[in-house]
Every structure is written in structure tokens, then in C-alpha cells.
Specification:
Length: about 170
């Protein structure tokens, strides 16, 4: 249940495996690979059951080994140089909490990543720009989406997205 991602490349009519990607902090039941998106030489991989309570981005090769927030979730960015794939960032919600399932869905367009957290529980109904996100938990499974932006090799949290009519059970971000 830790999960993995496999990268295949086509040359003419032949497909060959190029990479076998694992989370740098792989643990049992993390569900790494539960979502995946590719743009050029960058892949983002969701791990909706990852368990770290970290609330910041780690740029580079490492990821938190803390397992105190079951199902908080994470997303990992990997960059290809030639035929080699290497970790570039470990993305976490700035309001990460147990059960949020951050990483349930992921999308990427060049230098912008969006990560969904379908069971995030804030009742907020507005967008927060920057690194803030609500810690209010009065709307169970309302859901949220988080936007991250890359400049060079550095990733930052850009926005926290909520539905304008957020209600419990909506699962926004799925």
C-alpha cells in the first residue's frame, strides 16, 4: 500500500520502462500514486493517505518521516533530466490535518500544480492567496484545492481554493 509510479517512454512502436518512482518517505498504506499528472519533464504524484503533520513545502530530495496525521496526504514533484528522474519538492497543505486526503487529485501545467483534498473540513467560502489556509473544521469533507507555483527549482504555495458555497460533504477538489 505504499505505492509507486512507473514511467514508460515510447520510441517508435516500442514502449520501455524509464523509471520506477517511490516517495522519499514511503510508508505502508500511503497510497503514493493514487493520482498522477505529467507536464513535459515534470510529474506530480499524489499520496492521499500519507501521514505527515508537516504544513510546509520541502524543496529538494527529502520528505517528512513524521506519521502523526493519518491520511493528511501529500504530493510529490519529480523532474526529469535526460533519462533520470529526481525528487524536486514535497508538497503539503498549509493547514494539513489527519483525514484531509490532500493529494487525492493532482493537476499540472508547466510550473503550476493544483492539489485536491476532498475531505478537508473548512467552512471557508473564499480564496486565500499566499500561504494561509483555514484551520476551521466545521464542514466535514467540504474539500479544498491548493495551488503551488514553481520558479526555477523552488516551489511555493500560491492559493487556497474553496467553493463559494462550501458545505459539508461537497468533496470539492475530488
Amino acid at each position: 500500500g505504499a505505492g509507486a509510479a512507473f514511467v514508460y517512454q515510447r520510441s517508435g512502436a516500442t514502449w520501455t520502462q524509464q523509471a520506477y518512482i517511490k516517495a522519499p518517505n514511503a510508508n505502508s498504506q500511503d497510497s503514493f500514486g493514487s493520482s498522477l499528472a505529467l507536464s513535459g519533464d515534470t510529474v506530480v504524484v499524489g499520496a492521499s493517505n500519507e501521514e505527515s503533520n508537516q504544513t510546509t513545502i520541502t524543496n529538494g530530495l527529502t520528505a517528512s518521516a513524521n506519521n502523526s496525521a493519518t491520511g493528511s496526504g501529500a504530493a510529490y514533484v519529480f523532474k526529469r533530466t535526460g533519462v533520470n528522474w529526481a525528487p524536486q519538492a514535497y508538497l503539503k497543505a498549509p493547514n494539513a490535518e489527519a483525514g484531509d486526503q490532500f493529494g487525492y487529485s493532482v493537476a499540472i501545467d508547466v510550473d503550476t500544480v493544483v492539489v485536491g483534498a476532498l475531505t478537508e473540513a473548512s467552512n471557508q467560502t473564499t480564496i486565500s492567496n499566499g500561504v494561509t489556509a483555514s484551520n476551521n473544521n466545521t464542514a466535514a469533507a467540504a474539500g479544498a484545492a491548493y495551488v503551488f507555483k514553481r520558479t526555477g527549482t523552488h516551489w511555493v504555495h500560491e492559493a487556497y481554493l474553496k467553493a463559494s458555497n462550501a458545505n459539508a460533504g461537497d468533496r470539492f477538489g475530488a
